[in-house]
Specification:
This protein is an alpha/beta fold. The protein has helices at about 1-10, 20-30, 30-35, 40-45, 50-60, 65-75, 110-115, 130-145, 160-170, 190-200, 215-225, 240-250, 270-275, 285-295, 315-325, 335-340, 345-355, and strands at about 80, 100-105, 120-125, 150, 175, 200-205, 230-235, 255-260, 280, 330, 360-365, 365-370. The strands form 2 sheets. The chain has a 9-stranded mixed β-sheet, with helices on both faces. The chain has a 3-stranded antiparallel β-sheet with strand order 10-12-11. The longest helix is centred in the middle third of the chain and has 16 residues, at about 130-145.
Length: about 375
Amino acid sequence: MTEERAYWLAWSRVSGVGPVLLQRLQQHFGSPKTAWEANSSQLGEVEGFGYQTLQKVIQQRSQINPEQFLKQHEQENPNFWTPADAEYPRLLLEIPSPPAVLYYCGKVDKAENLAQKPLVAIVGTRQPTEYGIRWTRRISTALVQNGFTVVSGLAEGIDTASHSAAIKAGGRTIAALGTGVDMVYPAKNRELYKQILNQGFVVSEYPTKTQPHRTHFPRRNRIIAGLSRAVLVMEAPQKSGALITADYANEFGRDVYALPGRLDDFSSQGCLKLVSQGATPILKELDELLKMLGAIPQAHVINLTPDIEKPLPDLPAELHQVMKAISSESLPFDFIIQQTKMPASEVSSALLQLELMGLVSQLPGMRYQRNY
């Protein structure tokens, strides 16, 4: 997978090719390496590759040697994942704009990355009331005491309260940053940052030494939502970054919960709006909230070998190889390609044949699961 890592990293440095466009390249060509080696006419077949983008790509590709760039980059950024890595957070692979490179620092729990341990995001305003702080601490504590990991963004206010409460309760917490993983923003959270590294980890799509910038934080909100199975908005005015996170959560099919407040309370207007749009209100009975969160489906360990009691039917070699890579859990198309090491076109053809035979089902988001 080292070769694939090099090309994910190389593509992440090409201006004009963001996460969405890179995801289209991956789906079209089957691998970032194949896409990197494609000529301009082949790239032009991908939606979003206009003349100007093509010119940028052709010029910048000629200046980057992926293998050499990987070696140089690893010296300053030793800890990062790409979609080619088994440790890359599985839930992030489900969103339409997964980071090509995700840097991390701290103590990683593979069960969290493999979606075998539930992650729940808690977000809200940087200027919360005592009411918002009190309920954030109470809910964050209850979550970690019941086996959840709390995800937030290390910002002032609600984010800080959620991380701190999780740590104080002896649980794990993850912070998605709008800076490099070696930078602390705001500076007043430096001690909290150190505590998070001891009881969780921080992640960012930005390399080390990246300073905070106002455009980074709305983008990192999609990572908070993408990592989590549900997003809890504790307190938010009408214009709040927390509402951006809630929008991403809705887009990604995550559950959204909101803490209701007074009708005339400025800090609660965003939450009230979310409730009016269908978000589940967080009410006093925390047992009910925990019950609803516990009902969210958990991912299980993927068994890539066929069930001994149900041997596979007699299939051609290429169909048999693809079938072996599929389990009863829904798997993304890219993951199947990685497991089979077959070209994307051959995997796609095999999946279609297996669907027609009734052995495999295609689910939304280019995901597949075994029926047999």
